[in-house]
Amino acid sequence: MNRIGQLARVGLVAALGFSLAACSGGGSATTDNTGAAGEPVTITYSNFISNGGHEEDLGAIVAAFESENPDIKVEVKTLPYSDYFTALQTDIAGGTTADVFDIEFANYAAYQANGVLAALKGADTSVYQKNLADAYATDGTQYALPSSFSNVVLFYNKTLFDAAGVDYPTADWTWADEQAAAAKLTDAGKGVWGDYQPISYYEYYKVLAQAGGKFLADDGSASAFNTPEGIKAAEWLIEKSGKAMPTAAQGAGTADFDSNLFNDGNLAMWHTGIWMFGSYADASFDWDIAVEPGDVTHASAMFSNAVAVSAGSKNIEAAQKWAAYMSSSAKMVETRLATGWELPPIADETALSAYLTAGKPENRQAVFDSLDAVALAPSIGENQAQIQDIVTEQLTEAAAGRKSVEDALTTAAEKVDALLK
Amino acid sequence: MTTAVVSKSPRKRITSTKVKYALTVLAFLLPSAVPLVCFTFYPMAGALWTSLHKWNLLSDMQWVGLGNYAHLLQDPATLRAFGNTLYYIVGYLPLVYVGGLGLALGLNAAIPLRGFLRGMYFLPVVTSWIVVALVWRWLLNPSVGIVNQVIGLFGLDGPGWWTDPTWAMPSIILASAWKDLGFVMIILLAGLQTIPQELYEAARMDGAGWWSRLRHVTLPMLSPTTFFVVVISLINGFQVFDQVYAMTGGGPAGASSVVVQQVYDLTFRYSQAGMASALSWMLFLVILAVTIVQMIGQRKWVNYA
């Protein structure tokens, strides 16, 4: 080996060493924004709840908070729901978590157990509906504050019902009523569909409860949906596809497909969440909502979101102040009710009464009636994302006719059981 | 490799020249070494370390040794992902090479609008995969897509394309070959232009027809370029992800799930970053092995004369 070659090698190794030092150097840079006395503290708030139409409403709440608390500034980062949790996870792993961030009930337990959430000492939980506040407490300590709740109801296009001469849905409807109406309302030639219900895990555990079945065995150690009730529930979900509802090949299941179909006035009935109210305030057709039809019983899905404070936050006190404001202040309640956003989680029912007359849809009482019989999401532990994917995938296979419902549920049960252990 | 040099006075000048030389080399290497180390070697080492742990991205890592690798080797999903990746490569590579070669030969000839046509074919290469994938999803839409409408004109029923497990991977292959055609064309065009005209003239004099000239002059002379295209396409093929993510997300029912899609799902959907890192390293080792085999194999068919 000649000397020049050797030296070049030394140079190469040194260059690599140099650059290694260069890239690991910046790793622990932190911004200290506690500020000197008199200067405002800046806290960051990362959210998905305002995405898709409520960004300005959130801005109004932030402005009100900042004017009441001149020593605190809130920097908002808004992400779409579909990207939010990926981003949050990356932020947590990278140590760049916002001071305050949105979570939802489904992933609260995982974040709490992994020490991501700061304990909220002295939080006043009496202002919230008790079951909602309790959902975000572990061993008597509050780790997040509920910021909203929502549920799923049956949206229907009155104009299409009138044209077909079908009676409007009522709270007493059963699956059979819905099915009969859907058949009459479907006009494939005109591209008008009678019914739309996503074929997914979230719908499945709910219709399973409507059919009188259970997703999990009582001790939570195994699945319990591969039963006659489970098969009935799965059949109810998939039988619409290709009859009253477009198939996957026709676009069902892709982003915004259902909301566009409804918006175009080509969908008579639609199972979706009350967070969609605002989108159809100016729809060209007349529409309303009803409690979802049941089978042996009624059961509605309920979701809730919460705001949490990062355990690594340098401004826990200011962050908690904002979290409390965002979840319980009068300004928040007023804004949510006035703009058809998801419902505020507060205990004060008289404040909620304004919601009933806040505009379209007329039958807002159905939102509260749905809460009388709630199908809670099964607690399926740390593998929940995988379990959800498996159930959705197997139901989709059955809906496409590539598998029998029995086979699909047997496969799903086997795979889910392996992940519950 | 290190040699301790005991320096005496006559050596001093040499040492200072040596230091100067080393510093010069260093200065030239730094601009490319810094990104290479920061964005390739450092993350790779980090991934190797992560792959030996169970990590949900939320709390501290737990050491599991080679547990992740052992689990992946037994998991049918791993085999399926590698199988689908191989399926993609086997479908994509011949399509894009033959198509690219055809275009290169056509656009190497003196035809009108040659520069414009070359530009048009190159356009998809510089277009974002997300845009291309969305367009292809529409083209291949089973009920309203143009492709099935045209097939329908012949009284046939088009397939379900990306909604059908059997057709999901062919859909991705088709879109990928279309997008990368221009890249392969440009590289092969450059290769074609290095072939001396005298060889063709000599071949003509010997009475070689179009096919013989292609077979016995063009292809052998193009073999270094072909080798480059094959190596690059294989490496990219093993890492196929964007188009899969945007067109099918690995579905339906995992029918088009490739290795990198699996890595993505494990990390960002299932919170198993350790497992995902192990799978990344398995993929790296496979690519390394395939590339080494190619480097050895090229001696038999690549002509550097």
Explain what you see.
The complex is a heterodimer of chains A (421) and B (305). Chain A is α/β, with parallel strands linked by helices. Chain A has two domains: 3-150 and 304-371, Periplasmic binding protein-like II (D-Maltodextrin-Binding Protein, domain 2, 3-Layer(aba) Sandwich), CATH 3.40.190.10; 151-301 and 378-420, Periplasmic binding protein-like II (D-Maltodextrin-Binding Protein, domain 2, 3-Layer(aba) Sandwich). Chain A has 16 helices and eleven strands. Chain A has helices at 3-25, 55-68, 81-94, 105-113, 130-135, 158-164, 175-185, 201-210, 228-239, 257-263, 316-328, 330-339, 349-356, 365-369, 384-399, 405-420; strands spanning 41-47, 72-78, 100-104, 137-138, 141-142, 145-157, 193-196, 267-273, 287-290, 300-309, 374-375. In chain A, the strands form two sheets. In chain A, strands 1, 2, 3, 6, 7, 8, 9, 10 and 11 form a nine-stranded mixed beta sheet that branches. In chain A, strands 4-5 form a two-stranded antiparallel ribbon. In chain A, β4 and β5 (141-142) form a beta hairpin. Chain A is globular. Chain A starts with a helix and ends with a helix. In chain A, 46% of the residues are buried. Chain B has 305 residues and is mostly helical. Chain B has two domains: 10-51; 67-301, Orthogonal Bundle (MetI-like fold), CATH 1.10.3720.10. Chain B has helices at 9-50, 67-74, 76-108, 114-122, 129-139, 146-153, 165-192, 197-205, 210-238, 242-247, 259-269, 273-301; strands at 53-54, 62-63. A two-stranded antiparallel sheet of chain B has the order 1-2. In chain B, β1 and β2 form a beta hairpin. Chain B is flat, with a radius of gyration of 25 Å. The two termini of chain B are 35 Å apart. The model of chain B has no long low-confidence stretch (mean pLDDT 91).
